[in-house]
Design a protein that fits this description.
heterodimer, A: 278 residues, mainly alpha, 12 helices, B: 297 residues, Alpha-Beta Plaits, 2 domains, six-stranded mixed sheet, 33% helix
Chain lengths: 278, 297
């Protein structure tokens, strides 16, 4: 089993290491994530540093979301907005195989269908690990530089790293499913953007209004709720605090449903690929 | 007979269209086996099923090793329909992937096969820059890598110039001489006749015939006879043993004979004894093309 996974990983690495779009998108992701956090941090700094009443008030309300341990939560939340970029890469990696018909050739050359999809699963894991690594170092850097040398509770919210990994893997799996089913890169990317940016938000809104918030089980929404917005608003009275605490309490439930949806996505992919004509 | 492939009762439908209907045949080890048929006859579907990229609705495919066990996939080299490679990678790196997946061939062998197929100079060029003929050569190189016991080729001479076609023909003959079993689909009957020892002929998904080329083409021979009085000649040949049918066409009597039963010397002597001096007496064996056209029309 392990030997098989190592063999598949080696072949996948041979495929992607020479793919220019891989390096371009990986590079863009590596720059975008930290750059966004730097921008958010400088916005925070400009809003809170100073002696005016407004800035003092802002600092009192916001606290320091970039210091330990809040950094793990804050940066996970902001980083999760940029899932579309690696999503595009995931779509390209699978639709390329269909476009060049190399998925057929891989099977003709001797791979089982399961080995082929396992290869794609490994690609998604590699991209997820890469993004999580970037997030980890960015969060660590901002935590270290915003905590005045205080590492006392640096790791108390470290579980957000795990949540971020699961969330990213889940959302990239959705992108993979679209590429896998639609087969054409452009169509899958267009649908991903439309669904992620527009359709699901509408459905979630409608469900909140009419369907007892059932929209929370939609694939992006459920994983988004694993990492709720940082809770500075909890400082505005008991009701707000309760709301925030309830959101945090729901994280395990949302994580469970996210894992179920992700598992279902990969089971669908394995099952379809093992039965279809290539 | 030592068999390398057993095709048993394969059927395949694409919605309402039945691409293969209960097809069964065997491929002897060491043969060069041609799969023939007009466009849409189900050749590529059959090859796809053999390679497990298409799922049959019914039937089984069994690859058998020399030892009588199920054949390991790394003993099978194949390419189907079009050369499928990663466009952004060089020919050399594409073959490295083929080698890694299939377990066939080494780095040294990749260089040797690229050299053999005249791709050595362009081995580091991207696949997307290759001509159609070069892509086809690279696909053949991928199939040949590691010298597999069985080669499965779909239209191997597609896109090649006459020199390339002759090279591939020679290559197939060389490999066959070394004992490699070769299964190839082709519409170039002349090429198939030159290299194949066995054929299966398909039409609209049905297997019309399969077996050795020699048996297939020795079924009937045509003897062309010419004499001053063709009508009289036809009359005296009525009832001559071994004749299936006769017909006067132009200035020639064409006799369809059951293969191998009529000796030209004897028919010449018989005619002379009956008072007819023949002006022409020639034996025409049917070409694969004629056999194919008769079977498929």
């Amino acid at each position: 089993m392990l030997r098989n996974i190592i063999h598949i990983s080696k072949v996948e690495w041979m495929k992607i290491k020479q793919y220019p779009a891989w390096w371009i998108l990986i590079g863009i992701v590596a720059l975008t994530y930290p750059a966004t956090i730097v921008a958010a941090h400088s916005f925070y700094t400009s809003a809170t540093e100073g002696t005016s009443d407004a800035k003092m008030l802002a600092k009192m309300i916001l606290g320091n979301p970039f210091s330990f341990p809040n950094t793990w939560h804050t940066i996970a939340y902001f980083s999760s907005f940029f899932i579309l970029l690696p999503g595009i890469l995931v779509i390209m990696l699978i639709t390329n195989e269909f476009q060049y018909k190399t998925h057929r050739q891989n099977v003709i050359d001797g791979w089982s269908r399961t080995q082929f999809i396992t290869g794609k699963l490994i690609d998604v894991v590699i991209i997820t690990l890469w993004i999580t690594l970037i997030y980890f170092f960015v969060a660590l850097y901002f935590g270290a530089t915003n905590s005045n040398g205080n590492w006392y509770d640096a790791w108390t919210e470290f579980y957000f790293v795990g949540l971020f990994f699961i969330q990213t893997f889940s959302q990239l799996s959705i992108a993979f499913l679209l590429g896998f089913l639609l087969k054409r890169a452009f169509m899958a990317m267009a649908f991903l953007v439309f669904y992620y940016m527009v359709l699901e938000n509408i459905l979630v809104g409608v469900a909140k209004w009419k369907l007892n918030d059932w929209g929370r089980f939609l694939p992006f929404e459920v994983s988004d709720r694993m990492i709720p917005a940082p809770g500075f608003y909890a400082r505005f009275g008991d009701d707000m605090k309760k709301t925030y605490e309830l959101t945090l309490e729901k994280i395990p439930e949302h994580t469970f449903f996210t894992l179920c949806i992700t598992l279902a996505i990969w089971l669908i992919c394995f099952r379809i690929f093992s039965r279809k004509d290539l | 007979m030592d068999i390398t492939l057993q095709v048993s009762a394969i059927s395949k439908s694409y919605g309402p269209i039945q691409a293969l209907k209960n097809v069964s045949f065997t491929v002897p080890r060491g043969s060069v086996f041609g799969i023939l048929g007009p466009n849409g006859s189900g050749k590529s579907t059959l090859l796809g099923i053999m390679l497990q990229i298409l799922q049959p609705n019914n039937g089984t495919i069994q690859w058998v090793s020399k030892e009588g066990k199920p054949l390991s996939r790394n003993q099978l080299g194949a390419f189907l329909e079009t050369p499928n490679f990663y466009h952004y990678m060089s020919g050399y790196n594409n073959l490295k992937i083929t080698s890694a997946i299939s377990g066939r061939g080494t780095i040294t062998e990749i260089d040797a096969i690229l050299d053999q197929l005249k791709l050595a100079q362009r081995k580091n060029s991207k696949f997307s820059t290759y001509s159609l003929g070069m892509k086809q050569r690279l696909a053949i190189a991928g199939a040949l890598l590691g010298n597999p016991a069985i080669l499965l080729l779909d239209e191997p001479t597609n896109g090649l110039d006459p020199e390339g076609i002759a090279e591939i023909r020679n290559l197939i003959q060389q490999l066959a001489a070394q004992g490699t079993t070769i299964i190839m689909a082709s519409h170039l009957l002349d090429e198939v006749e030159k290299v194949c020892t066995h054929v299966a002929i398909l039409k609209k998904g049905e297997l019309l015939t399969s077996g050795s080329i020699r048996d297939l083409m020795s079924g009937e021979e045509i003897i062309h006879l010419d004499a001053a009085d063709l009508i009289h000649l036809q009359q005296i040949l009525q009832g001559y043993p071994g004749i299936a049918s006769m017909k006067i066409e132009g200035e020639m009597l064409k006799v369809h004979a059951i293969g191998g039963e009529i000796q030209l010397e004897e028919i010449n002597r018989y005619c002379f004894q009956q008072g007819i001096a023949l002006r022409q007496l020639t034996l025409h064996k049917k070409s694969l093309e004629t056999t194919f056209l008769e079977l498929t029309h």
